[in-house]
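Extended Data, panel c. Modelled sequence:
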Amino acid sequence: MRAVALTSAAIALGTVLSGCSQEEKREYALPESLCGAPVQPELLDSLLPPGKKVSARTQTPNGGTRRCSVTVDDKVALVAGQIWWDKDEGVSDVAAAHAKVSPGTVTASGKYLYSGTGAVGRTEGCKTSEHPGQALFATLQVYASGRSDKAAMKSLIADYTTSVEKSGACA
């Protein structure tokens, strides 16, 4: 009886260990833009999970928001956004309204707030007659399980915000 129990335990342990040795791989190319705003693909490396297929879908749920959902194998992994918000409010105010962002670290300039799974950036020089009294903010939220990288998020929100500032969204 003891030999059967030891054999069963050894088989179970071997199965667990062999499952750990098979690391999942990324079979897709990292996106080169988020909601039409070019970004450095390598900044997304630690924030997107392994998988076979990546796709993106852009939505404009209202006149002041543009949202891009990046999916990996049909599961939402990251959501990038551009949102017009009251010009007198800061990145902490916008972060409080977005899942996966707060609590975070605010940069000394007050332009960015970032955590391991989300970030907000305040654009500079973006004005439009359609949104008087408002400022354009860039947002990022990671929904992929087990993906958190504060340093990568800090770099990505800076890159994404700069790209949004140069885009047609920032007229």
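The chain has one domain: 25-165. This feature is highlighted in the accompanying rendering.
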